[in-house]
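Need a sequence for this fold. Nothing fancy.
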């Protein structure tokens, strides 16, 4: 058993969300690795569009606190127009270096169509600009409606990839942080959030 705690942030508001179901498999992998994990379901929070002139809007302080207190984070998103969801973008906009600097982050993207590689690439860039350590291993669920039967993931290889992401998130949660990136040095807007 480890003291590591992982928060999986679900960037989907759908009631029947394949992103949420995929993150549940990741959290199974987290628990298999002896750590604790919880879902941060953005449906449950009042997060108005981030306004940099106003601090503490809605439930933003609680969302930010939960991400900051986690030892590692997994970000899950549906792919919308080749990128990640606006819901997840808004939640991340409330965060900054205090929440992500040196933190291990895993990535999951789900698509109704083909492989959601651009959503994963865009999230990776955002996390690197906050000086997070993004796992090289990532998980994608293409053609999501054909991968699930109800709540059950039928594709074993995707299920294993999601579980491995959970285990690796735990395994690398205490990795020595990289030196600051060029992007993080240029991202002054995230400083002190």
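Here you go.
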């Amino acid at each position: 058993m480890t003291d590591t705690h992982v928060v999986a942030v679900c960037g989907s508001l759908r009631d029947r969300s394949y992103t949420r179901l995929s993150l549940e498999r990741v959290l199974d992998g987290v628990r298999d690795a002896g750590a604790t994990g919880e879902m941060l379901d953005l449906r449950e929070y009042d997060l108005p569009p981030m306004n940099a002139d106003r601090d503490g809007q809605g439930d933003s302080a609680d969302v930010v606190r939960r991400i900051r207190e986690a030892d590692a984070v997994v970000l899950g998103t549906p792919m919308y127009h080749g990128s990640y969801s606006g819901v997840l973008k808004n939640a991340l906009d409330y965060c900054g270096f205090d929440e992500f600097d040196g933190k291990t982050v895993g990535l999951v993207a789900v698509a109704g169509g083909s492989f959601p590689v651009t959503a994963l690439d865009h999230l990776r860039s955002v996390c690197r600009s906050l000086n997070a350590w993004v796992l090289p291993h990532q998980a994608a669920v293409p053609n999501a409606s054909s991968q699930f039967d109800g709540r059950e993931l039928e594709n074993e290889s995707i299920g294993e990839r999601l579980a491995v992401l959970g285990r690796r998130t735990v395994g690398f949660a205490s990795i020595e942080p990289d030196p600051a990136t060029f992007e993080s040095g240029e991202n002054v807007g995230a400083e002190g959030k």
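For context: The mean pLDDT is 92.
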